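User: Hey, my collaborator sent me this sequence without any context and asked if I could get a structure. I don't really work with proteins. Can you help?
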Amino acid sequence: MRIIRLAQFFRKLESDISGVSTVELAILGPVFFALLFSGFEMGILYTRMVLLDDTLTKTSKLIYIGTFAEGLGDGTLTASDFEESICDKISLLFPSCEANLTVELTPINTFSDVPDTDAVCHDKDVPINPAVDFDPGGGSTIVFMRACMTVSILTPGAGLGLALPKTDNDRYQLISSTTFMNEPF
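Assistant: No problem. I've predicted the 3D structure and written it out in structure-token form, which is a compact way to encode the shape of the chain:
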């Protein structure tokens, strides 16, 4: 009699489908959410990169036409003035911009002489400021400009966050560069 009741219980359990969707969600949910958050993260990173590129291009124009230094009191362009100008335009998507931005200006002889070294990036979690060249050059000078911004991402342990290269402090580098020739001013 007990065996018959046990067999009936298992037949009833076989036909009961009340928890199937929960099991499917438990199996497929993490994969789905990792893809969803990776897509969102990619959109944010791409927007940040485009904003950094666009701002660097527009700000470099002020250097090569010679109007950036005219707006300053003594007419001398410093790295902090330049970084502040960039951060004023992009601070909405880059919190603590000035603490994470490194701008390098290097005069070169020809357009093919761009530096072959990696960009130097500053991280707000490290108290040391790296030394980089900041020489806007004079009239008719070719200048290579590179900016590096370190950022945190929302999902470092899933999807896109696993594929991106990290710094020692688990932050990510966005690097933008441009080359221009100063007007003969």
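In plain terms: The radius of gyration is 27 Å. You can pass these tokens on to your collaborator as they are.
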